[in-house]
């Protein structure tokens, strides 16, 4: 009697050890398959069991996820215990484990040879087909996630305390499995959102670079943008003042752009703008600042340039523009440009930005005068144009 009590005591200690080992299992950084493998190893290590398996619910069917016995787990390495169990499935109410799934209660088959509820396995990896079997539902929050199966070759082997222990183990396993799925689902969501965030940051960086490029470069022509002109123009003025060298500003406007857009559409108008932009790039020297200010309006800022040099360049530009061979539907599109020019005067107390605005205003006055005279003209600014 004493020896029987000692055996029972040690069995209870082993059961608590299995629960303790289960509680210490990591739920992060392992797959569900690895997690369940470790759970069965913890059970087999501290219990006198020959075969164990875990069937998880997939839809309405229980499918064997992991299973084996002492020998199976001891030779883990090249062997895959799940390979022998692939294809083993049970529905609710089918066999002992199907009843455990259906009822949500532990099922004890005392003698599988005589119990009509038992459905023999087609393979013997998990159970030999005789002896005793316990199927305990793996539950979390009243939801059956699967079934834990334990067996022994002896009929009537499992005692009442076994049933209580396996029910406790299955319930604890269910809570941990549910937590594992939540953690991994959260990790997947974090990974997915991190990836989405990385993509958004990458796209934002691309947009930032694009915006920066667009703020420097005119998208249609590739010339400097209006914004960049007024930034770089101030720097050119500062250098001209510091080193006391001449600088001129030339404003060029396409005379026919509105009529071209009205007659042939903006696509042809854009072609005209691009062709003229190419002409200005060819005529510009190294160090000159060429920009498109908008629509058919262009500007050149010319360091180290006297009025005579500006006049000569303006003449070449007008000639090149008039010689552009722009055709649309076999019809020649005639192009001319009006050019207004001005040069740097004394800054006085004016800020660089104010002086650049003044130069632009003066050149614009000269351009408007050219357009009033029919276009295709060039003119230097004079105060009389303000009248």
Automatic annotation (TrEMBL):
List its EC numbers. Answer: 2.7.7.65
List the CDD domains hit by this protein, alphabetically.
GGDEF (cd01949)
Leading EC class: transferase
Q: Highest taxon of the source? A: Bacteria
The biological processes this protein is annotated with in GO are:
cell adhesion involved in single-species biofilm formation; negative regulation of bacterial-type flagellum-dependent cell motility
Q: Which residues form the GGDEF domain?
A: 245-383
Q: Which reaction does it catalyse?
A: 2 GTP = 3',3'-c-di-GMP + 2 diphosphate
Identify the PANTHER family for this entry.
DIGUANYLATE CYCLASE DGCM-RELATED, REGULATORY COMPONENTS OF SENSORY TRANSDUCTION SYSTEM
By what name is this protein known? diguanylate cyclase
């Amino acid at each position: 009697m004493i020896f029987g009590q000692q055996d029972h005591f040690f069995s209870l200690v082993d059961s608590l050890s299995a629960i303790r080992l289960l509680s210490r299992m990591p739920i992060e950084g392992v797959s569900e398959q690895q997690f369940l493998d470790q759970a069965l190893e913890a059970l087999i290590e501290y219990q006198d069991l020959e075969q164990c398996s875990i069937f998880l619910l997939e839809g309405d069917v229980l499918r064997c996820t992991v299973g084996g016995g002492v020998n199976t787990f001891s030779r883990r390495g090249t062997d895959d215990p799940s390979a022998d169990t692939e294809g083993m499935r049970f529905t609710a109410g089918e066999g002992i484990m199907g009843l455990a799934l259906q009822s949500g209660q532990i099922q004890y088959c005392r003698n599988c040879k005589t119990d009509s509820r038992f459905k023999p396995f087609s393979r013997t990896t998990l159970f030999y087909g005789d002896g005793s079997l316990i199927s305990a539902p793996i539950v979390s929050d009243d939801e059956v996630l699967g079934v834990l199966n334990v067996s022994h070759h002896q009929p009537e082997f499992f005692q009442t305390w076994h049933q209580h222990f396996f029910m406790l183990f299955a319930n604890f396993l269910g809570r941990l499995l549910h937590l594992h799925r939540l953690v991994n689902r959260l990790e997947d969501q974090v990974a997915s959102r991190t990836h989405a965030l990385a993509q958004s940051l990458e796209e934002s960086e691309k947009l930032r670079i694009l915006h920066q490029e667009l703020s420097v470069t005119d998208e249609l022509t590739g010339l400097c943008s209006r914004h960049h002109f007024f930034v770089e123009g101030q720097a050119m003025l500062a250098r001209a003042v510091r080193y006391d060298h001449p600088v001129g500003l030339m404003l060029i406007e396409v005379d026919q752009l509105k009529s071209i857009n009205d007659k042939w559409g903006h696509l042809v108008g854009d072609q005209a703008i691009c062709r003229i932009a190419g002409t200005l790039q060819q005529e510009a020297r190294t160090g000159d600042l060429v920009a498109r200010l908008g629509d058919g309006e262009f500007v050149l800022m010319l360091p180290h340039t006297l009025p005579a040099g500006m006049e000569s360049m303006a003449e070449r530009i007008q000639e090149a523009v008039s010689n552009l061979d722009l055709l649309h539907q076999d019809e020649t599109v005639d192009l001319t440009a009006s050019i207004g020019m001005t040069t740097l005067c004394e800054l006085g107390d004016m800020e660089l930005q104010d002086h650049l605005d003044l130069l632009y205003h003066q050149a614009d006055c000269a351009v408007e005068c050219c357009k009033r005279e029919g276009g295709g003209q060039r003119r230097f600014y004079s105060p009389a144009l303000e009248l």
